[in-house]
Design brief:
Isopropylmalate Dehydrogenase
């Protein structure tokens, strides 16, 4: 693949692109180029004040240096999206002019061809939070990237960190990873507005199919929910492989198949089919555990089970330790991943990745928090932990472990300091500091000070 020519960004002079080999395996160099989109709001650097993405990158670089002593290095290639892209590429465009553009025109304002070309070539990226674009045509930068590069799996690991205020008494038992299908379900955007000609045509067609006004009114808006065996199975395959690689006990297929039998019910059925066809010697179904093994899974085998979505929302609160990997269609996964994150203190520490067979983008799952822009106050944890996922993707597991342990040590230190009584110095950002009795937001450290403290812990390991 020929290296792109860019308009307003310059590729790094060093570094090697991550490439997919003919065997379908990633070839990971010791100096991979990673496309970096710092983001908007708290993600952006403003007038020399670093945002959370810069703070996170500093920690990632320190962890790599500690783990590999200079033998490996991340080479960052900064590209732009969101408000920053609009300022750099179309500074004079007004909101009214933007709204008048078609969908592709709006996309180019917020997601320039430069950025798409860079990610297409280098395949791996880290992204901070981005502003939702103005205008009704272009839905979302994140959604566009997912469909453009077939990033079909949204991966959301969630775990509890001691020292973080968690509303659920079982939060300390939460350690799970959700695999959400990214490219199908109602998120495809196949919708027809109530009263529109297209909606009327769809209603008429459904009338011919035998659906009367008892279930479908003439005035209804219509949405279509496609779920296919091919896209369901590749998502579930990735989830099972993750469980095997991590030596985790189970994969749960979360669905609403008791009602939507031919979409979500089929997702569940295809999951079992895939598990038995491709992983038969490595997995056992929950039914088999009780029927053939006396209720105890054979050693070394991953249990494949399923739960109906509404029951799952209870299970994650009452018995979270029974679930390690969850695979689910798009809409369920959207709800479920945020709900699990809430158990452990919210999405401020929720890492995320969108991964396909040919590219991977790692990103914070929270918003831009514009009121804190340029204040060096926000918690960089979500971007940082997404960066740890990036390190795992590169199979740099030693560096990823240092990041996770550094974050954990910094939170635990703050918890111990606060329990000793008011007046101690905390090294966590305001959102964590304010949860401790006798402390408040003012006791919080800056984003960069928090990152520096994590690095101190990393360097002691």
């Amino acid at each position: 693949m020929t290296a792109p020519v860019y308009q307003k960004i310059t590729a790094p002079a060093t570094g090697t692109r991550v490439a997919l080999g003919s065997n379908g395996k990633w070839n990971i160099p010791d100096d991979p180029v990673v496309v970096l989109i710092k983001g908007d709001g708290i993600g952006a650097d403003v007038n020399g004040v670093p945002g959370i993405t810069t703070a996170a990158v500093k920690v990632l670089d320190a962890a790599v240096q500690k783990a590999y002593k200079g033998k490996r290095k991340l080479v960052w290639f900064e590209a732009h999206a969101g408000d920053e892209a609009r300022k750099r590429y179309n500074p004079a465009i007004t909101d009214d002019q933007l709204k008048a553009l078609d969908e592709n025109g709006q996309r180019q304002v917020y997601l320039p061809d430069d950025t798409l070309a860079a990610f297409d070539y280098y395949k791996v990226g880290l992204k901070g939070p981005l502003t939702t674009p103005i205008g009704g045509g272009f839905r979302s930068i994140n959604v566009f990237l997912r469909f453009k590069f077939d990033l079909y799996s949204c991966v959301r690991p969630v775990r509890y960190y001691r020292g973080v205020d968690a509303p659920n008494r079982n939060a300390n038992k939460v350690d799970m990873c959700i695999f959400r299908e990214n490219t199908e379900d109602v998120y495809c955007g196949i919708e027809f507005k109530s009263g529109s000609d297209k909606a009327k045509k769809v209603v008429a067609f459904l009338r011919e199919m035998g659906y009367g006004p008892d279930v479908l009114l003439d005035s209804a808006g219509i949405g279509v929910k496609p779920i296919s065996p091919e896209r369901s199975k590749r998502l579930i395959r990735m989830a099972i492989q993750y469980a095997l690689d991590k030596k985790l006990p189970s994969v749960t297929l979360c669905h609403k198949g008791n009602i939507m039998k031919f979409t979500e019910g089929a997702f569940k059925d295809w999951g079992y089919e895939l598990a038995k066809a491709e992983f038969r010697d490595k997995v056992v179904t929950e039914d088999e555990v009780y029927k053939d093994h006396g209720g105890k899974a054979p050693a070394g085998k991953v249990i494949i089970k399923d739960r109906i979505a509404d029951s799952m929302f209870q299970q994650i609160q009452l018995r979270p330790d029974e679930y390690s990997v969850i695979a689910t269609p798009n809409l369920n996964g959207d709800y479920l991943s945020d709900a699990v994150a809430a158990l452990t203190g919210g999405i401020g520490l929720a890492a995320g990745a969108n991964i396909g067979d040919g590219a991977a983008m790692f990103e914070a799952t929270h918003g831009t928090a514009p009121k804190y822009t340029g204040q060096n106050r926000a918690n960089p944890g979500a971007v940082l932990l997404s960066g740890a996922l990036l390190l795992e993707f590169l199979q740099w597991f030693e560096a990823a472990e240092l990041v996770n342990k550094g974050v954990e040590a910094t939170f635990a230190e703050a918890d111990a300091t606060a329990k000793a009584g008011p007046g101690g110095k905390l090294h966590v950002t305001y959102d964590i500091a304010r949860q401790f009795p006798g402390y408040g937001e003012q006791a919080g450290a800056s984003s960069t000070a928090f990152a520096d403290r994590i690095i101190e812990h990393i360097n002691k390991m």
